[in-house]
Amino acid sequence: MSGDWNTKYGTRRVRHDPPTLEEAIFAAVGITDDVEAQAEIASALMGLPYEDVLAEVKKTARVSARTGIATRVIAGEQGAQRSVVVERRAVRRFAIDKRTGT
Fold it and tell me: What is the CA radius of gyration of the chain?
């Protein structure tokens, strides 16, 4: 989709590309932590049915929960925003042979 208008320098065109579903979900995740609200925001951005977007948002939430990495934005004293990445590592437990103790 494109828009044309006339200026004193001639005709100007602007290309309009709607966001992809992944981009809309990424934007919604940055706004709120609630899955239903994320689906509502992404469906409004895309113009898609809520139920279809909700399924994709739940898939994305499941994958991000499995990786254990979260990014939070914190406002400092002067209002400057800082990003903090929180990574949770899986604890590895080794089986110990009870007979030998090793």
Answer: 23
Query: Are 38 and 25 a contacting pair, CB within 8 Å?
Result: yes
Q: Which of 24-28, 51-55, 66-70, 89-93 has the lowest mean pLDDT?
A: 66-70
Residue 66: enclosing H or E segment and its boundaries? helix 50-67
Q: Give the residue among 16, 41, 14, 8 at the shortest CA–CA distance from 27.
A: 41
pTM for this structure? 0.53
DSSP 84-101: EEEEPPPPP-----TTT-
- Going by C-beta distance under 8 Å and a sequence separation of 6 or more, which residues neighbour residue 18? 1, 45, 46, 47
